[in-house]
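Quiz preparation item.
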């Protein structure tokens, strides 16, 4: 078999899987930082930067690495509101660029922070995939009966807010201290945000992510991803741009593992009530 990406659909579960034998050969932790200015992937000075993934999980340069800042070893929230605003602009710009491709139906922006969730380089960065079809998880949200994100969140789940942007612990969180971030208004994608909306988003991201790092007085590994309007020509009235943040720890040094009972059933078990998680996060000073 070839080493390039190949999409396969499981006959029983109908779950799509991209098989990529070639990525098994990629280096785990390279010597030196290729993302610092002057490094392999960023030879020139920059504020933000993007480039095609050298070990792509999708073909035809539909996978990119996004560098949030030139500073090495800092968390996204430590870039401050101005620095995170530049990240928001980068996300929006790459959404437009990749979404304009004829072979892209859905642009997924995401970040894996920390080696516990697979980040091999300690430099503030994320990634973006341009899928040929709308993936199953955002598709379920997009084909619901109503937009749940337009429904007010009970105050006991609320964590922090900036203008129309709100961060809260979902009522049925699958992960302890899980966060969701969305605007009150039914904005469909990041590129549709005006300057004020982008500023408020940057502010709420800085504050929410700083609280996660204060929970256990240590950097919180997490998975962060954006769901927004597909880039195809379809009619998607329920598209409401939002961010999911799934933290890794449920206690100081105690990981939250997804185990067989959850993977096998699709039903998740959370030992930290989301209203308690929200109260704990609210009690921290944020940023």
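Solution:
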């Amino acid at each position: 078999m070839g080493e390039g990406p190949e999409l396969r659909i499981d006959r029983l579960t109908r779950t799509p899987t991209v098989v990529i034998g070639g990525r098994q050969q990629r280096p785990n932790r390279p010597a030196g930082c290729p993302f610092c200015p002057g490094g392999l992937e960023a030879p020139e000075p920059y504020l933000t930067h993007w480039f095609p993934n050298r070990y792509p999980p999708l073909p035809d340069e539909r996978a990119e690495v996004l560098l949030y800042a030139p500073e090495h070893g800092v968390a996204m929230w430590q870039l401050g509101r101005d620095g995170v605003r530049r990240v928001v602009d980068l996300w929006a710009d790459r959404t437009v660029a990749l979404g304009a491709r004829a072979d892209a139906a859905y642009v997924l922006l995401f970040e894996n922070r920390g080696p516990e969730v697979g980040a091999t380089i300690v430099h503030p960065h994320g990634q973006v995939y341009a899928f040929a079809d709308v993936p199953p998880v955002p598709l379920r949200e997009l084909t619901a009966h109503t937009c749940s994100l337009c429904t007010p969140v009970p105050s006991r789940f609320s964590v922090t807010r900036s203008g129309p942007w709100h961060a809260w612990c979902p009522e049925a969180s699958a992960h302890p201290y899980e966060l969701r971030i969305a605007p009150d208004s039914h904005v469909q994608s990041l590129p549709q945000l005006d300057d004020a909306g982008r500023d408020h988003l940057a502010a709420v991201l800085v504050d929410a992510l700083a609280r996660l790092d204060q929970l256990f007085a240590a950097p919180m590994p997490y998975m962060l991803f954006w769901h927004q309007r597909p880039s195809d020509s379809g009619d998607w009235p329920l598209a409401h741009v939002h961010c999911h943040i799934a933290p890794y720890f449920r206690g100081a040094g105690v990981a939250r593992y997804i185990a067989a009972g959850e993977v096998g059933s699709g039903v998740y078990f959370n030992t930290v009530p989301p209203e308690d998680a929200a109260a704990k996060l609210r009690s921290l000073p944020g940023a």
